[in-house]
């Protein structure tokens, strides 16, 4: 597997990690780092469990639901087009987006077997914590992945793979999908639901 393929799959983990979770109290740098250690441990456990692809996707969604915020990621991915959307459209988009992300990246999780992610350091930047990790894949040089955790609610909100924000990448992808549908958000939602 190429490093590019791994980075693409890891990007999916970042977005999938933005699934709805319970609100947490304001956190410290140590708690942000602990959160990412738990996320990484749970992900590695599922990857190495040997389960079927569909079972793994379901487990990943369950793990990510504990730690993050699908509303933030989904509506950020929708970008300016979300401003004119009704509350019903926003709710439907968030639900459809979750399924879309799970399907899009779920098939790549097996590619991570034998790789590892190690937390290196954590620093606070304004209202978030940046948890720097070193990602190693068999046969490749280690590279940096920064997990972004909100210091306000303790939820996982983004990640940067080699400096590239996953939220911004998904915004471009969703924007292109919406353009192909001439800006029809209802049509995009329906197509995302179909898979």
UniProtKB/TrEMBL annotation:
It comes from the Bacteria. The keyword RNA-binding does not apply. It comes from Aliiroseovarius halocynthiae. Residues 1-25 form the signal peptide. Keywords: Signal. This is ABC transporter substrate-binding protein.
């Amino acid at each position: 597997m190429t490093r590019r393929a791994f980075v693409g799959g890891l990007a999916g983990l970042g977005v999938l990690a933005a699934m709805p979770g319970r609100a947490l109290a304001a956190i410290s740098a140590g708690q942000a780092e602990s959160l990412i250690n738990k996320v990484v441990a749970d992900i590695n456990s599922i990857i190495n469990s040997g389960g079927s692809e569909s079972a793994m996707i379901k487990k990943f969604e369950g793990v990510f639901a504990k730690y993050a915020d699908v509303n933030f990621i989904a509506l950020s991915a929708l970008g300016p087009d979300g401003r004119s959307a009704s509350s019903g459209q926003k709710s439907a988009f968030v639900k459809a987006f979750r399924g879309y992300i799970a399907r899009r990246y779920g098939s790549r999780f097996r590619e991570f077997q034998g790789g590892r992610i190690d937390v290196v350091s954590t620093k606070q930047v304004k209202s978030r914590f940046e948890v720097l990790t070193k990602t190693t894949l068999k046969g490749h040089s280690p590279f940096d992945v920064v997990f972004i955790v909100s210091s306000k609610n303790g939820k996982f909100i983004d990640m940067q793979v080699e400096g590239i924000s996953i939220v911004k990448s998904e915004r471009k992808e969703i924007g292109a999908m919406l353009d192909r549908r001439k800006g029809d958000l209802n049509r995009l939602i329906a197509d995302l639901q179909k898979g």
